[in-house]
Every structure is written in structure tokens, then in C-alpha cells.
Design a protein that fits this description.
The complex is a heterodimer.
Chain A lengths: L13 E6 L2 H13 L3 E6 L7 H4 L7 H27 L12 H27 L21 E6 L7 H11 L4 E5 L3
Antiparallel strand pairs in A: 1-3, 1-4, 2-3
Chain B lengths: L2 H8 L14 H14 L3 H27 L14 H25 L6 H25 L26 H32 L5 H9 L7 H34 L11 H27 L8 H31 L3 H12 L3 H13 L7 H4 L2 H28 L14 H24 L5 H20 L19 H4 L2
Helix pairs in contact in B: 2-16, 3-15, 4-5, 4-8, 4-9, 4-14, 5-6, 5-9, 5-15, 6-7, 6-8, 8-9, 9-10, 9-14, 10-11, 11-12, 12-14
The chains are: A alpha+beta, B mainly alpha.
Chain lengths: ~180, ~500
């Protein structure tokens, strides 16, 4: 699908190992990293657990945005209710306190949950660059959304030896092995 | 004992038979996508035509109500909340099972949820849509419905009353709808990408847009998993809050039969109960219509029947508690309210409720009954009926016999009200049938994770001493190295 896309990032070349099993992919990633190859990314049809750890990816910092959203929702929700009840238009309801905190709890809770959820999802969309687009994204082969696992290796420096990678690909059971895939 | 038997005996039972037959990954994709790609059968068209006709009738009757006025309903000065609010509470309750399955069972790492979670989440969204219609048309002047939101206005600005449970409802239901919708959509993104990479032409464009350029890279999966987990963690207290707040509409009033502290837990348990019944009804239909018996298995139905039995008994216990407390309070109004509920003019409704909600689920003590699809279907419909009557009993019976006997009335719904309820079922089933037709009703990626775990669990048991600690291959453990691979 997107195998033939014009290169835009200088002369860096990429090679793709395609596997058909999650466990083998995790093992292959481990092996490739041990052998000093520079992994660009791994594309999988589902969330393969431990793969991010094997690739040396940091845990995502997304939960901080959830916390921020929740805190913001809590503050705004409570603050707005308190402002309308005490400052902007105080109403005497049965002589009760204007700032009747227990009565403000439900709306405060709901607004905190709402903003926490929306912040989490907005962060996911922004960080992974998910937005409506008509054409398919750059992914090494379309079957990674079906049953294939694609490991993309970056040709990092002059010491890179394509034949060694090709040999390793055969050993790891990667089929096919795509040489020189162009990443957008 | 052969080696194979030894292996199968040492497999952790949690890994067994969630998806029977060990299909390959592409078989999973093909089988789940088949109903979307092949087009629907006669059964689907029949169901769709029926649902769409009911929806059309509902639209006409809602139009008639708005055009003529709320007087076309059977409400009077004493019973101001009748059929419409009963339907509202009923539909909100239906929605709860979706969140329970998708969020709470995710947090509890119940792997069997993977093949049914998507349908249950869709059900939540459509049920909340149906629920939302009723309070709005009940307002009488629905074109002013936006007055329920706090926006700067020319009336002061006079703000909405944040101390009113009815306003809490507005916030709870809208938050619940938005969060459920977002949760559902986030789960669908990778599945839309799978569809995008299978189909051609204009459908590919549409799935391409819906999948937001998902490419399945590991970092995206890591964030996706974390987001799902966080949304589940947020949705769990949310779902409890929503029906609690709905029950506050009644519990914070002073009417005997409404003014009780048991209402919040009673409503939440009832919601889970009725929602699971509706999930059962829908899944039994879906697996038949879409030929998904491999993914929505008898084991799933069996587990849901157990939940139905449990929640049914919680609800039954609540009915008993309610009666006991009414007697124990020594309050003549309370005592009368419950006596009247069981033996008054609407007594039939009470006993329908007890029969459907407490007696019928008892058949699920039998394992055979839990795996009998026909029986499950009938029982789930009984529970739906029973739970509808529960809401009717609470709302209408309590109102119709309030403090002053001179204002007592006997509320009977008009045909317009009955037709609008039928119309809401039409909306619900029309949406659901369109959903199963155009979106993967079983999650590709979640089933594949379950499958990988199943396989991994089997390998693991074969490789290692079964008594040794397991690796961390459970629902959502992204980011945590397992003891098995850390040292490698």
C-alpha cells in the first residue's frame, strides 16, 4: 500500500521484518536490540503486552493529562457553582447557606469525570496524531491491522550491514523481508 | 496420561475456551468482518423493517405530542410523572450493563468480556439516547430544553438551580453519554482501521476517516491501552453516580414510597440487572443474525445468566428490605404506601415485578437452563418487563396515592404514551441493527489479545512448572515487565 512513498527524511533507509506471531515478534525485537540494531517502530494488529518494554519505550505520560483534566473539571465545576450561588446571583432558599457544599457534590463530580475523560482522549489523539484523514497512513504493510507484525529497523549509520539483517530475518522466521522501505 | 493431556490439565482454567477452536488471527478478522462485508440476510431486513416502522410511529407521536401539547398524555395534577419518566428511568438503567461489562469487567480483568463488550457499549449509547428523549418531551415546551444548561442569559443571568436533583440529572446523563460515546469510539478506532485495510472504494474512504489514520504502532497501542484503562476507571464511579443521581430525583422528595435511603443502591442494582437482561436479549439476537456463535459463546451466555441471578436476588432483597423498613418505621404513610403498592389498584404491576425479577431468574440455578438459548431469551424479556414495572410502581403508585385522599387519582396512560414507548424501542433497535451492520460488533483487537493470551497461557503451562508464578499476561499490563522476560 504505502511501500512506494517518496522519501522525505534525507537518506535514512528502513528495513521491515514481517512476522505472524506475537511471541515471535517479542523474541525478534529482543534479539534485534541485543544485536545492536536500531528499531524504528513495531506495528501490530493488537496491543502486544511487554512489546513496549522490550523496545525500551518509556511508559506513557498520558495519565498526567487525565489528572490535569480531572483537577480542572473539579475546580471549574465547584468554582462555577460557588460563584453563581454566592456572588453572581445568591438566592435565599429556605434560609439555608448559599454555599451548600453537599448539594454541589454531584455536579462537581460529573464535571471532573467529564474533563478527565476528554483530556485523556484528546491527549491520545494529539500524541498519536489521530485525526480524520482520507488516505491511509504510513504503515509498512496493510496486513498489520489483520494478522501480521512488522518490525521496522532503521539504518542508523555506516556500520549497518544489510546482509547481516537479512540473515537474521531468515533466522527469526520473518517472511517477507522488505528491504528499503521508505517512511514518510 | 499423554503429554497433551497433561498440558491441557495444567492450563490455567482462565485461559481455556474463551474462543473455542483456536482460530488464527486472520480467521478472527474474516469471521468478524464477514457479516459486514457480505451484507445482511432476510432476518436482518425483517428485524430492521420492524424496528424502523416502530421508530417512524414514535416520531409521528412525539410530533403530535409537541404539536398539540402534553394533554394528549394521561397525566393529571396528581400524577405529573407517569409513563415518560418511567421510560426514562428504565432506559437509563438498561444503559448501565454496557458500562459494567466494558469498564468494570475490564478493571477486574474478566477476559470473557472481550467478545461482548463492544455490543454492550453500543447498547449503552443507544439506551441513553432513548432515555434522553423522555424528559425533554415531558417538558411540554421542548424547544426550550436548552434552559437546563447554565449559560449566560438575559434573565439576570438567572442560573440553573445547582441544588436540584433534576439538574444533577442533566449533568450526570450528559456526562455519561459523552464518556460512553468516547470510550466506545476509542475502542473502535483500531477496528475501523482493520476494516479500512480490507474494503475498497468509498467504504474504504469512510472507514479511513473513522479510523483517524490508525497504523498500529507500538507507542500508539501503549497510549491506547492506557486511555482505555483510564476511561474504564473513570466510567466505573460514573456509572454508579448516574443511577444514584437518578434515584435522588425520588429519594430527596418527601413522598412516601420515594423518600427512602435505600433507593440509590436499589436503583444501581436494578440497573445492572435490567441492563444484563437487555444485553442477553441483544446478544442472542446478534449471534443469530450475524452468525457470531463462535465469539459469543454459550459460556458468555452462561456467565451473564449468573450475573442475572445474582443481581436479581439483590433486587429481591431490596424489595424485602423496603417492605420491612416501611413496617418498622411505624409511619402510617410509609406503611400505607407499600401496602397500597402490593394490594392497591395497581397491585397487579407489583406482582408482575416480583414474578419477573425475583422468581424467573431462579431458573438459572440450573446449569442446563443457563445454556438453553431459548429459555435465556424468554427469561431476559421477562426481566425487561419486570424492571419496567418496577419503575412504574415506584413512580406512579407512589404519586397516585399521596397525602390528601381528595387528590388521589388513577393514572392510565393514553395510547400516545404507549406508542412513544414502542417508538423508543424502535429507535433503540434501529440504531443497534445499523451498528451491527456497519461496525465490527465484536472487537477485532480485543479478541486477538484474548486469543494470544489463550495461546500464551497454553505454551506457558507446557514450558514451565505449573506451580511457578505466572507471567503478567493479563488484561492491561502495558508497561510492566514480566518476571519471565525482564532478565532476558
Amino acid at each position: 500500500m504505502s511501500k512506494r512513498r517518496s522519501p522525505s527524511r534525507g537518506a535514512i533507509r528502513y528495513h521491515v521484518l514481517v512476522l505472524d506471531d506475537a511471541d515471535e515478534t517479542v523474541a525478534a525485537v529482543r534479539r534485534l536490540r541485543r544485536d545492536g540494531f536500531d528499531l524504528h517502530d513495531v506495528y501490530t494488529p493488537f496491543a502486544v503486552h511487554e512489546l513496549d518494554v522490550e523496545m525500551g519505550l518509556r511508559p506513557t505520560r498520558l495519565p498526567w493529562m487525565t489528572l490535569l483534566g480531572g483537577t480542572l473539571g473539579l475546580t471549574l465545576g465547584l468554582g462555577f457553582q460557588a460563584w453563581t450561588a454566592t456572588a453572581n446571583w445568591p438566592l435565599n432558599i429556605g434560609g439555608k447557606s448559599n454555599l451548600a457544599l453537599p448539594a454541589l457534590a454531584p455536579v462537581t463530580f460529573e464535571s471532573a469525570v467529564l474533563l478527565a475523560a476528554l483530556f485523556s482522549v484528546a491527549t491520545l489523539f494529539a500524541a498519536s496524531r489521530l485525526f480524520p484523514r482520507g488516505r491511509p497512513p504510513s504503515q509498512p504493510i496493510a496486513a498489520v491491522t489483520d494478522d501480521r507484525f512488522a518490525i521496522v529497523v532503521r539504518e542508523a549509520d555506516a556500520a549497518f550491514d544489510p546482509s547481516r539483517l537479512a540473515g537474521l530475518a531468515g533466522e527469526l522466521g520473518a517472511d517477507p523481508f522488505i528491504e528499503s522501505w521508505k517512511v514518510e | 496420561m499423554t503429554e497433551r493431556q497433561q498440558v491441557s490439565q495444567s492450563i490455567d482454567p482462565r485461559f481455556q475456551e474463551l474462543i473455542p477452536g483456536e482460530p488464527s488471527l486472520s480467521e478472527v478478522t474474516n469471521e468478524i468482518a464477514a457479516p459486514i462485508e457480505k451484507g445482511p440476510g432476510a432476518l436482518w431486513w425483517g428485524a430492521f423493517a420492524t424496528a424502523a416502522a416502530a421508530l417512524a410511529m414514535g416520531v409521528v407521536l412525539v410530533g403530535y405530542t409537541i404539536g398539540t401539547g402534553i394533554g394528549v398524555w394521561g397525566l393529571d395534577r396528581t400524577v405529573g410523572w407517569g409513563w415518560a419518566i418511567t421510560n426514562f428511568v428504565f432506559w437509563v438503567g438498561i444503559g448501565h450493563a454496557g458500562t459494567l461489562i466494558s469498564a468494570i469487567l475490564l478493571l477486574f480483568r474478566q477476559r470473557w468480556r472481550t467478545s461482548i463488550a463492544r455490543a454492550a457499549e453500543a447498547m449503552t449509547i443507544f439506551a441513553v439516547m432513548c432515555a434522553g428523549i423522555f424528559p425533554v418531551i415531558h417538558m411540554g415546551r421542548p424547544w426550550l430544553a436548552f434552559w437546563v444548561f447554565p449559560y449566560p442569559n438575559t434573565r439576570g443571568p438567572l442560573w440553573v438551580n445547582f441544588r436540584s436533583p433534576l439538574l444533577w440529572d442533566v449533568f450526570a446523563i450528559s456526562t455519561y453519554f459523552i464518556v460512553s460515546l468516547v470510550f466506545w469510539y476509542v475502542g473502535l478506532i483500531p477496528d475501523f482501521a482493520t476494516m479500512r485495510d480490507r474494503v475498497k472504494g468509498w467504504r474504504r474512504r469512510i472507514y479511513g476517516w473513522l479510523s483517524l489514520g490508525w497504523d498500529g504502532s507500538t507507542k500508539s497501542w501503549q497510549r491506547h491501552e492506557k486511555t482505555s484503562l483510564l476511561l474504564a476507571a473513570l466510567a466505573t464511579p460514573l456509572v454508579v453516580s448516574v443511577h444514584t443521581i437518578v434515584s435522588f430525583d425520588f429519594a430527596t422528595s418527601i413522598l412516601p414510597g420515594w423518600h427512602t435511603t435505600i433507593l440509590p443502591p436499589y436503583f444501581v442494582a436494578g440497573a445492572v440487572f435490567s441492563g444484563f437482561a437487555m444485553v442477553l436479549t441483544l446478544l442472542i439476537m446478534t449471534r443469530k443474525l450475524m452468525r457470531l456463535e463462535r465469539f459469543i459463546t454459550l459460556d458468555h451466555l452462561d456467565k451473564m445468566a449468573k450475573v442475572l441471578l445474582t443481581t436479581g436476588m439483590i433486587v429481591g432483597f431490596a424489595y424485602g428490605t423496603e417492605l420491612f423498613i416501611a413496617w418498622y418505621s411505624s409511619n402510617p404513610y410509609e406503611r400505607f404506601a407499600f401496602w397500597n403498592r402490593a394490594f392497591g389498584p395497581y397491585g397487579v404491576g407489583y406482582w408482575i415485578m416480583v414474578f419477573c425479577n425475583v422468581v424467573v431468574p431462579q431458573v438459572f440455578w440450573s446449569a442446563k437452563a443457563r445454556r438453553n438459548v431459548g429459555l435465556l431469551f424468554v427469561a431476559s424479556i421477562f426481566v425487561n418487563i419486570g424492571m419496567w414495572f418496577e419503575r412504574f410502581n415506584i413512580i406512579v403508585i407512589s404519586l397516585s396515592r399521596d397525602f390528601l385522599p381528595s387528590s388521589w387519582t388513577h393514572y392510565v396512560p393514553s395510547m400516545v404514551e404507549v406508542g412513544i414507548l414502542v417508538g423508543s424501542f424502535g429507535l433503540f433497535f434501529t440504531c443497534f441493527l445499523l451498528f451491527v451492520r456497519f461496525a465490527p460488533v465484536v472487537s477485532f483487537h480485543e479478541v486477538k489479545v484474548t486469543l494470544a493470551e489463550q495461546k500464551h497461557g497454553a505454551h506457558h503451562a507446557a514450558d514451565e512448572d505449573p506451580a511457578a508464578p505466572r507471567s503478567n499476561w493479563s488484561g492491561t499490563t502495558f508497561g510492566r515487565p514480566s518476571p519471565r522476560t525482564r532478565g532476558a
